[in-house]
Amino acid sequence: MPTFLLEIGTEELPATFVSEAISQWEKLIPTALSEVYLTNDGIKIYATPRRLAVIINNLPTQQPDREEEIKGPPAKAAFKDGKPTKAAEGFAKKQEIELKDLEIRPTEKGDFVFVNKKIQGKKTAEIIIKLVPEWISKLEGKRFMRWADGDIKFPRPIRWLVTLLDGEILPINLENGSEIITSGRISYGHRVLHPESIEIDRAKDYVEVLKKAYIEVDFQQRKSQIEQQIQTVAKKVKGTAEVSTELLAEVTNLVEWPTAVVGKIDEEFLILPSEVTTTVMVTHQRYFPVLKSTKTAKSKVELLPYFITISNGDPEKSEIIAKGNERVIRARLADGQFFYKADLAQPLESYLPELEAVTFQAKLGSVRKKVERIVNIAKLIAEQLKVSQEESKNIERAALLCKADLVTQMVYEFPELQGIMGEKYARACGENEAVAMAIFEHYLPRGAGDILPESISGQVVSLADKLDTLVSIFGLGMLPTGSSDPFALRRAANAVVNITWSADLSINLHQLLEKIAVDFTKFYPEAESELLPQLYDFFLQRIKTILQEEKNIDYDLVNAVLGNNDSEYTERALKDLLDVRNRAIFLQNIRQNGLLDQIYETVNRSTRLAAQGELDKIQLAPEKNVDLNLFKSQSELAFYNALVDLVPQTKISQKTRNYQQLVDGLAKIAPTVSNFFDGPESVLVMDPDPKIKQNRLNLLGLLRNNARVLADFGEIVKS
Questions:
Q1: Helix ranges (DSSP H) in 143-273
Q2: What distance in Å separates the CA atoms of residue 391 and residue 47, rounded to the nearest whole number?
Q3: Which residues have a Cβ under 8 Å from the Cβ of 23 and sit 6 or more positions away?
Q4: Global pTM?
Q5: CA of 136: how far to CAs of 7, 152, 621, in Å?
Q6: What are phi and psi of 449, to 5 degrees?
Q7: Contact 542/494 with Cβ under 8 angstroms?
Q8: Three-state DSSP state, 116
Q9: pLDDT tens readout for residues 55-104
């Protein structure tokens, strides 16, 4: 049971591609082996900046023999007057069988020629020789390149190839123009610590042989070593390292033999906002900041004058490496210090005129124009929420200043700091805390899993900013597609819903969208004619997705609260986002505790039959919609009286948004309705007399309408 090794040696690969290649091969290689009937006892993918490798353990020496049923041409084309035609002869020749071995079998599409072919398994080595070039060529990623005069595309030039089946070299040639890369057993060690070539005798020795040449090929091992080294050296300077998952993964893919190196920064730079210093370190230099060991809130991060880098060089030269890194970061931080002081020379409001020169979108004008729209939308939201006069003032001020930092020197140089610097500069020039915080928070959430704004000012300005973008871009007809969403409209709509739900904001989104759209069309008369319907549908899709994927609500219960092409439910959902969330969660809860099952059959059956009547979906009162003189059975009167008792509970639920009373009422009425349908005094709903029929359908319609205050039970699937 041999072990196979493939190593592709390259120039230094981009860090992102290293991770992508591991992920792709983890799917591609097992599938490819399965398709050629090769079993194994485990596949391990390795990768460093200079190599991709795979080890496949305990392969069979050859494929198993197998039988395969192969379908040929239609029988009427293969045989004429009982004799084989050229079609039959060609099929037999292709399958390397005798004509007498052909069989005619019936199928759904008529009689066809078949053959049961015995296929002898090929040697594993022969198969892998053909698979390896496919494994290389099927890797995908950004910015692939050609090199020399060849046509092979890869992120960086391929320099060597190792292909061993146990100790045997599998001969594979990659032809790249005039250059031919021939497989062998020669690999290469660390560029600095072991620049010489190394010979790999057997596939199973790969990891240990590379380790002796100062190459740790296992991503997880390198990552673990880096984490451990970082915290060890951080402790030596009495601090703790801030290690982000993204930076750790990137750095792991930039080195083959990691060494954590501590560098020092001048203490004068610690007067800079910590976000500036950490952005320079993390985003621009791939350094890990060192914090004071005591845990503090994110807003009160205290940096120590140190940073940690992960070197891929000689550990004995760490001091020299640190000095070089210190020179680089000193220059970057000096720039940051200059920008910071220059920006603080004038108040944040003074930057507003410069926003006229920054384009938001060609047809929509400048960011300054967008700020004006944000201010107006924020006022609409504040009015709906009935905020205090002081809060209203803060919201308007924050909306006015929210984009001002975009034209500061600091944010121009470090765009990642937008909002963060706006908060700092607002506080420094005397704006109150609520305004400063809202400037930062209005960008939240910045991505999946990010925090949401917590202050009322931040929440309102964030909603205003996102709603302006959504209405404006939709108004231009630039709707997102499955593969393209350049203005991040899905993220913006998700944020509107999540901010509203997280803060329990009683906003009427339906009305807001309508007012914003009207204002937009005044500014842009040629706006998309279907603007509002498109926006409504877009938000409903986002609400549906969030309820299912983030709130874990069953799909049918989501449909029940949103309706299916039901304009009443659509409008209701958008007018009260909190209510649609609460109804969905409530339905999920009563499904789990069994209460939904108690009312499901009764309400669902009534809903389906009521659809054949003429009663609208709004009426609740039986007194106005049912004629007692048309009753023929005591069960009808009992049904009517039960509805009379139910209506007050329904109206209380409507008013309080507490639906437990309604469900209790539906549970109480269920036996009465069951008797109406199937009891000793049951009636035929579809009575030959149209008046009696309509009267009975009205009873069912009223029950449906009471239940619709909670949900459309016609959309609920039986548990």
A1: 206-212, 219-236, 245-252
A2: 55
A3: none
A4: 0.82
A5: 10, 10, 72
A6: 85, -5
A7: yes
A8: strand
A9: 999 999 998 888 888 889 999 899 988 889 999 999 988 888 888 888 89
Lowest mean pLDDT among 73-82, 324-333, 667-676, 683-692: 73-82
Q: Max alpha carbon distance in the chain (Å)?
A: 103
Within 431-566, where are the H helices?
433-441, 456-475, 489-503, 509-523, 531-549, 555-562
Spatial distance between the Cα atoms of 229 and 232, rounded to a whole number of angstroms: 5
pLDDT tens-place string over residues 141-158 = 988 999 999 999 999 999
Structure tokens at 130: 């053909």
Q: To which H or E segment does residue 395 belong?
A: helix 389-401
Compute the average pLDDT of residues 100-129. 89
Angle separating helix axes 219-236 and 15-35, nearest 10 degrees: 150
The residues, ordered by sequence, that sit 6+ positions from 397 with a Cβ below 8 Å of its Cβ are 431, 435
- Tell me the C-alpha to C-alpha distance, in Å, between residue 154 and each of 35, 139, 179, 332, 660: 25, 8, 15, 33, 62
Of 189, 253, 227, the C-alpha closest to 46 is: 253
Q: Which two tokens stand for residue 138?
A: 């099927």
Look at residue 423 and tell me whether its pLDDT is greater than 80.
yes
What number of H helices and E strands is found in the chain?
27, 20
